[in-house]
Amino acid sequence: MIELSRRSLIATSLAASAVPASARAGAAPKPYGVVPSPRQWRWHGREQYAFVHFSINTFTDKEWGFGDEDPKLFDPKDFDADQIVAAAKAGGLKGLILTAKHHDGFCLWPTARTEHCIRNSPYKGGKGDIVREMADACRRAKLPFGVYLSPWDRNHAEYGRPAYVEYFRAQLTELCTRYGELFEVWFDGANGGDGYYGGAREARKIDAPRYYDWPSIVALVHKLQPDACTFDPLGADIRWVGNEDGIAGDPCWPTMPNKPYDQKEGNSGVRGGAIWWPAETDVSIRPGWFYHADEDSKVKGPERLIRLYDESVGRGTNLNLNIPPDRRGRIPDQDVKILKSFGDAIRATFARDLAQGAVAHASHSRGPGFEPARVLDGNRESYWAAPDGVTSPTLTLDLKPGTRFDVIRLREYLPLGVRVTRFAVDAEIDGSWHTLAEHECISAQRVIRLGAPIAPRRVRLRIVEAPAGPAISEFALFRAVAPVPVPTIVSTDPSVLDVTKWTIVSASAPGAEKLLDNEAASIWVQPSPTPGTPARVTVDLGADTLLAGFSLTPSRQVMTDAAPPKGYIAETSRDGTNWEPGANGEFSNIAYALSTQRIAFTKVRSARFLRLTFSEPAVPAARLAIAGIGGFIATR
Ligand code: FUL
Question: Are 498 and 629 in contact (CB under 8 A)?
Fold first, then answer.
């Protein structure tokens, strides 16, 4: 904690008079370095929006479809675009991006260019258009709408050859011309691998930058949709934050070097980089991007979403929060409750800037139009600026007596570039100054949460390091409102048992508790079994249970040289000594489907213990990985 004396403050104010009068008054500062385009500047104001992954995977329980799925599988019985939009709004999300086509190639709109689309599904007798319904619902709710169009297409016969790029551009043109204004067009980085490819069933690799000629694709979007920011490749308006966990780097600069994307650089950006390529933080409210019933108990709670908010929006990036509809075509009730709790807490926290009514003064000011009070006017287009050459000024707010706060928000006026490198916020408490926080990078916004509310007499923004005088558009104070807790549920499926009540009796490798913790990201890993040395786990169900079968969830994370088990031997016991066969077989397509497999026993039985044995991995791999196991009872 730094204490700053009154003397050093006076010294700073005296330094102000050393600046030539000509530089202190008048014109706006010159931009520093690279600046956002008007389209990017508008995008910075969006803060957080919904990602909606909905497609044939919702019905096959997969994350990545192979491309050979029958369009008839797409059959939402109760699709309600307004319900989805209402859930997004409840969560405080200010836009919505729909997966018009995921990697499996199935199109949610009746495109003229392929039969692998909604026209050949039972939805509305083949007359449906989910893209239109979502676009219209967004418009009714005044929510900006955007689309995700997967460049990788595992269905298309020509994928990897020039004809597919022509097809991709034609699809993009349909989406950019039929559904009104789009605020974002999302191109996924996943590109190339095995797939159906019109029946070839082979692996195809491409060199994406050369194959797509991204600058020409981005130009096509901008021509048809001037306000739409494009996501991902070099040359696009926005970059990926480098992980799917919802965590932006600290700092996270909006600038990058003008070269192909590097994941580590993408997470933190590069100070002084040659291009404006700000980060979007994409993360799902559930472990998977698509809906899976077995993840009903794993929806991120409101407290976790607040942390995600702080680590994405609070670090100057935009949060793209995925909320996947279920097989009905609606956001599940549990997710809606969580979204509402999260949205209410964010709305209540940021409803009133407690700095309003404070008196703002600065060590230096540029004069009329750039006064310190500009940081209090709630207008992102106005800002306080110091005279040229003053790079470490301070701005102080004399607060109204009794102002208590625990959240601070700062915003830089980005059309003049990223000017502040390092800053600190101090508070004057009982006559002495204390540093509350010191960070690199303010950018679009910086949210600082304090451990507990404080009520100082004054707060001060201190620019510690900057290559150009700051242009600060906001210095705001808030009182955090905690979200209403939402109890977790086991599943929307009443037959699914609560595994958190189970315990491990014995296991072939340490860490088997990870199988029962309901955390998709915690995975039991061990050397791959062989028929002679199988992997095995025995669990105690805690009570005699009428068990109808077991389930196994493979890791959905991409893991190097690890695979789920190929098959299983399941046995049950009432006393832990005498075992009865339950089921014995192979998991279907487990290495690719990567979804929970439900295995029914030959007959329902009373059991206290369950023993699972795995004798080989599904594909050759050095390690066996399993995220979870479960059980279900008969419901009829
Ligand atoms: C990834 C994709 O492979 C996932 O399926 C998902 O669409 C996510 C947003 O991007 O790269």
Answer: no
Say whether 512 sits in a helix, a strand or coil. helix
Give me the half-sphere count of Cα atoms (radius 13 Å) on the Cβ side of residue 61: 15
Rounded to an integer, what distance in angstroms lies between the CA atom of residue 187 and that of residue 384?
A: 37
Closest Cα to atom 6, ligand 1: which residue?
A: 289
249, 254, 256, 260 alpha-carbon torsion, rounded to 10°: 80
Q: Would you say how long the chain is, in residues?
A: 636
DSSP conformation class of 212: I
Closest CA to 288 of 265, 322, 313, 264: 322
Q: Residue 219: what residue type?
A: A
Helix (H/G/I), strand (E/B), else coil: 240? strand
Distance of CA 364 from the midpoint of ligand 1 (Å): 48
Identify the three-state secondary structure at position 524. strand
Q: How far apart are CA 634 and CA 252, in angstroms?
A: 51
**What CA–CA distance (Å, rounded) separates 40 from 37?**
5
Distance 245 CA to ligand 1 centre (A): 12
Q: Which two tokens stand for residue 36?
A: 């956002």
* pLDDT averages per 10-residue partition of the chain, 636 residues: 34 39 66 98 98 95 89 98 98 98 97 97 98 98 98 97 98 98 95 92 94 97 98 96 93 97 95 98 93 88 97 98 97 98 98 97 96 97 97 98 97 98 97 97 98 97 98 98 94 86 97 91 94 96 96 83 95 97 88 77 96 96 96 80
Q: Please state, in angstroms and rounded to a whole number, the distance separating the CA atoms of residues 107 and 130.
A: 9
**Residue pointed to by tokens 């509350």:** 436
Centre of ligand 1 from the C-alpha of residue 15, in Å: 53
* Ligand 1 atom showing the smallest separation from residue 190 Cα: 11
| 8 A C-beta contact, residue 144 and residue 94 | yes
- Which residues have any ligand 1 atom within 6 Å of their CB? 63, 188-190, 282, 289
In this structure, what token pair is assigned to residue 410?
């700062």
DSSP string, 276-327: E--EEEEEESSSSSS--GGGGGGPPPHHHHHHHHHHHGGGTPEEEEE----T
* Residue to mutate (ligand 1; options 51, 102, 239, 289; most atoms within 8 A of CB): 289
Beta strands in 60-196 (DSSP E): 96-101, 145-149, 182-186, 193-195
Whether 617 contacts 624, CB under 8 Å = yes
For residue 557, what pLDDT is reported? 73
| Torsion sign across C-alpha atoms 617, 618, 621, 626 | negative
End-to-end Cα spacing for the chain: 64
CA atoms within 13 A of residue 601's CA, in its CB half-sphere? 23
Two tokens, residue 40 = 């990017």
Reading phi first (left if > 0) and then psi (alpha if -120 to 50, else beta), residue 567 is in beta
Atom of ligand 1 nearest to the CA of 150: 7
222 CB neighbour count, 10 Å cutoff: 18
Orientation of helix 333-349 relative to helix 81-90, angle to 10° = 40
Residues in a beta bridge with 507:
537
d(C-alpha 381, C-alpha 268), whole Å:
26
Which residue puts its alpha carbon closest to atom 4 of ligand 1?
A: 289
Q: At residue 89, what are phi and psi to the nearest 5 degrees?
A: -65, -40
CA distance 145 to 141: 10
In 332-471, where does DSSP find H-type helix?
333-349
> From ligand 1's centre to the CA of 188, what distance in Å?
6
